[in-house]
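Ticket #4471: structure output looks truncated?

Reporter: J.K.
Steps to reproduce: submitted the chain below (97 residues) through the standard prediction queue, then opened the result file.
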Amino acid sequence: MDVEPIEYVRSSTVFGGLNQRISVYQDHVVVTNPGSPVLDSVEVRYDQVSEVHLYTGVLYATLTLEMRDGYGIMVRWLPKSKATRIAALIWERVRAA
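Returned output as attached by the reporter:
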């Protein structure tokens, strides 16, 4: 049986987004990059995340996760309202970890 994410959001492909997907689970977050020749998906536990940044525009947002080891993940062209919810869920779980 597959575990369903609490919430997820896909980046828009209208302005050049890559159709990436951020899925929030109880104990980790997964960023999926469909069609990427290098890295298909990244799974990050909340205790690995040091910072969560959300940069918002009028309609879209960019979410950046910074890891404790210096690695970072950035997803652009996310719908603003869902990205705000996703960022709040991730930040809540990072602080609890």
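Triage note (M.O.): checked the attachment and the full token line is present. The mean pLDDT is 91.
Status: closed, working as intended.
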